[in-house]
TrEMBL record:
SUPFAM superfamilies: C-terminal effector domain of the bipartite response regulators. SMART domains: HTH_LUXR. GO terms for molecular function: DNA binding. CDD domains: LuxR_C_like. This is LuxR family transcriptional regulator. The keyword Amino-acid biosynthesis does not apply. InterPro entries: Sig_transdc_resp-reg_C-effctor, Tscrpt_reg_LuxR_C, WalR-like. Keywords: DNA-binding, Transcription, Transcription regulation. Residues 146-211 form the HTH luxR-type domain. Gene3D superfamilies: 3.40.50.2300. It comes from the Bacteria. It comes from Streptomonospora alba. Pfam families: GerE. GO terms for biological process: regulation of DNA-templated transcription.
């Protein structure tokens, strides 16, 4: 069997509340051939960050926001405890996997890192249920009264993007939604400008990914 040596390791930055925990988690990750634990002082960028914390304190939240803004990588969070409010804050900070510390075995940590690097997520069923309830509550209490979807799109914008996805041109869309072609173009340009999207196909792709259409 020929081994492909060109496959790059997943580089993981570990942040922990004490040196002993940091070394333990880094050593566990280093035992996986596909993972490389990187130092904070090394110039190479990370692909995933692993953050170990007791609770979602102000300091931990600040650390997560710093990682989000500077590294822009998915985060695996290993907390001693996490509650409903903490979960929403964590997700806003690019946390894609939560492993309660009591269940964070070496195997689960490595699997969570590999899943995060591949674009997936890992949440215990109880926490996932809480997250869904929070999203539903936000939709019903905050977004819907203002005519918004969780994607940040209005119902009119969703209608236009759905018809674009179906292959309709501007004139056909204008006829169906009873607007002028210029008004339809304003709707589309408003979406792309507000959400920093490049063009119409990018806007349709965004709507599809966010579940709006």
């Amino acid at each position: 069997m020929v081994v492909d040596t060109t496959v790059r390791s997943i580089r993981v930055l570990v942040r922990a509340p004490d040196p002993l925990t940091h070394v333990a988690v880094s050593d566990q990750l280093a035992a996986e051939p596909r993972i490389e634990a990187v130092s904070e002082v090394r110039p190479e960028p990370a692909d995933v960050a692993v953050v170990v914390a007791d609770r979602m304190t102000v300091e931990v939240t600040s650390l997560l926001r710093t990682i989000k803004n500077s590294l822009r990588v998915p985060v695996v969070l290993i907390p001693s405890e996490v509650n409903r409010a903490d979960l929403i804050i964590a997700v806003e900070c690019n946390v894609v996997a939560v492993l309660p510390r009591v269940t964070a075995t070496s195997t689960r940590i490595k699997e969570a890192v590999l899943t995060a690097a591949a674009g997936g997520g890992v949440f215990p069923p109880r926490l996932l249920g809480e997250l869904f309830r929070q999203v539903e509550q936000m939709q019903s209490e905050v977004l819907s009264p203002h005519g918004l979807h969780t994607s940040g799109l209005t119902p009119r914008e969703i209608d236009v993007l759905r018809m674009m996805a179906e292959g309709l041109d501007t004139a056909e869309i204008a006829e169906k939604v009873c607007l002028s072609e210029r008004a339809v173009k304003r709707v589309i340009s408003g979406v792309t400008r507000r959400l920093n999207l490049r063009n119409r196909p990018h806007a349709v792709a965004y709507a599809l990914r966010s579940g709006a259409i």
